[in-house]
């Protein structure tokens, strides 16, 4: 498998076509559901989830302390993922369900959760907006 692959991610009435990088260092799983976590850049998260989770996203992106409306409805669809990086320990990122997830033309039936990065990533030579979980090297 090549390290960069086309993706199609959908949630409700939104779909995003983007590119993902197979990150062999991404071993994140949701402890509750056991699902792998892919990490998406802010622009992907905003395109897919701003209509549904606008107040949550505003809180994480802008540090806004405004009231988060209807928090009870979010609890089953937002997963708080603990993770550490080389430079920072004990971080938490929200991750969201998706309704469909394609790697190239292959539908991934065990849909991953979409984790929210606070920064964009990639480089000029190989542009991508999602860090894929290492388990996707099997596809």
Your description of this structure?
- It is globular and about 35 Å long.
- Strands 4-5-8-3-9-2-1-6-7 form a nine-stranded mixed beta sheet.
- Helix content is 18%, strand content 33%.
- It is of the alpha+beta class and 139 residues long.
Question: What is the C-alpha radius of gyration, as a whole number of Å?
Answer: 15 Å
Whole-number mean pLDDT: 83
Strand order of the largest sheet: 4-5-8-3-9-2-1-6-7
Number of helices: 2
Low-confidence stretches: none
Search tags:
139 residues, alpha+beta, 9-stranded mixed beta sheet, 2 helices, 9 strands, 18% helix, globular
Give the topology, please.
Layout: E1 4-11, E2 14-22, E3 37-40, H1 42-62, H2 71-74, E4 78-83, E5 91-96, E6 100-103, E7 106-107, E8 113-116, E9 130-132
Parallel strand pairs: 2-9, 3-8
Antiparallel strand pairs: 1-2, 1-6, 3-9, 4-5, 5-8, 6-7
Brief characterization of the structure:
This protein is of the alpha+beta class and 139 residues long. 18% of the residues lie in helices and 33% in strands.
């Amino acid at each position: 498998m090549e390290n960069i692959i086309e993706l199609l991610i959908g949630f409700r009435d939104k779909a995003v076509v983007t590119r993902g990088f197979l990150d062999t260092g991404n071993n994140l799983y949701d402890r509750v559901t056991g699902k792998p976590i892919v990490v998406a850049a802010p622009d992907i998260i905003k395109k897919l989830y701003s209509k549904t989770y606008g107040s949550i996203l505003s809180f994480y992106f802008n540090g806004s302390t405004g009231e988060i409306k209807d928090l009870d409805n979010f609890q089953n669809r937002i997963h708080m993922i603990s993770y550490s990086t080389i430079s920072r320990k004990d971080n938490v990122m929200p991750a969201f369900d998706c309704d469909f997830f394609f790697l190239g033309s292959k539908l991934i039936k065990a849909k991953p959760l979409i984790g929210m990065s606070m920064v964009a990533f990639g480089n000029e030579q190989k542009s991508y907006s999602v860090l894929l979980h290492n388990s996707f090297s099997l596809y």
